[in-house]
Write a structure and sequence with these properties.
Elements (H helix, E strand, L loop, with lengths): L1 E6 L4 H14 L3 E5 L3 E7 L7 E7 H4 E7 L8 E5 L1 H7 L2 H4 L6 E9 L2 E10 L3 E8 L1 E2 L20 E6 L2 H12 L4 E6 L5 E6 L6 E4 L3 E2 L13 E6 H9 L8 E6 L3 E7 L3 E8 L4
Antiparallel strand pairs: 1-5, 1-7, 2-3, 2-6, 3-4, 4-19, 6-10, 7-8, 8-9, 11-15, 11-17, 12-13, 12-16, 13-14, 17-18, 18-19
């Protein structure tokens, strides 16, 4: 089990942004390494728990990338780590981006502890080395970190493109201070209504003429919208963790079950899975 890579200097700040996002979402996450992608994976247990799936394409972030997985038939490495600790240790990637000449990553062992080591080279032969403690995840537990899946059923699924993530974030933050839950109502005509669920005040926001993502697995049913109740505090936390500079998002609504938000940049995909709440 070996891993080493040389990071593309142009992407060091975005790499730190990913770490900052994951640090806001979870104290502990799992880094999955495979031949083509890096994945940061986090999940919160419980009925109202959420899952996060963040994907980075290796060919964009790394000039050199060498990985020998656990076995030939399972060419992956799973490492448990603390993203907050990693983001704090690697703050230099963001603050000194213009003076960084080279960043190397490799899996090492220091003082009987597995580490993900970062070697940061700067002008005048200066070098910073950060050894981030990690815990290899046993192969028998890998299935616990598979990307969440859900069933797409006719009349129970709608996907809409929301071009302004900041606006949605602002509305959710306002609603969160007025009540614990909100109801989403989405239809195949590109309409979305977000309603606060509260006995004290009636409040709703309407989005019209949104782009509808057609899914061939679902027969389009225009007659009835898909509805879903969501815990606002959880949703605000997820949206507030977006440090990757997403230009928009796609929201997938599964009736009464799940809100799946996909935030996308040219380099990073951050997917958020938030289960519905039955009130």
């Amino acid at each position: 089990m070996k891993f080493r890579a040389k990071m593309n200097v142009a992407y060091v700040r975005q790499f730190h942004n990913v770490l900052a996002s994951m640090a806001k979402l979870s104290k502990v996450c799992v880094l999955k390494l495979d031949q083509d992608y890096l994945y940061f994976i986090s999940s919160e247990s419980g009925v109202s728990g959420f899952s996060v799936w963040c994907q980075l394409e290796c060919k964009n972030f790394f000039e050199e990338y060498i990985l020998d997985g656990v076995t030939e038939d399972a060419p992956y490495i799973y490492l448990e780590l603390q993203p907050g600790q990693m983001a704090q240790s690697l703050a230099l990637l963001k603050t000194a981006k213009d003076s960084i000449q080279l960043v190397k990553m490799k899996l090492t062992r220091k003082h009987h502890q597995a580490c993900l080591s970062f070697v940061i080279e700067m002008p005048c032969n200066r070098q910073c080395v950060h050894d981030i403690p990690v815990t290899p995840v046993p192969r028998k537990d890998w299935d616990d970190y598979a990307q969440p899946e859900y069933e797409i059923v006719s009349g129970h699924f709608v996907s809409l493109v929301l071009p302004d993530v900041k606006k949605l974030k602002h509305i959710v933050e306002r609603y969160k201070n007025l009540g614990p839950y909100a109801n989403f109502e989405a239809d195949q005509k590109g309409q979305l209504r977000l309603s606060l669920l509260s006995d004290r005040v009636t409040l709703s926001t309407h989005f019209k003429e949104l782009q509808v993502v057609k899914n061939p697995l679902a027969i389009i049913n225009d007659s009835e919208p898909v509805t879903l109740n969501i815990e606002l505090k959880k949703l605000a936390s997820l949206l507030g963790a977006d440090h990757i500079g997403s230009r928009g998002c796609t929201a997938h609504f599964v009736r009464d079950k799940l809100l799946h938000i996909c935030l996308i940049t040219d380099d990073v995909t951050l997917e958020l899975y938030l289960p519905g709440v039955h009130l």
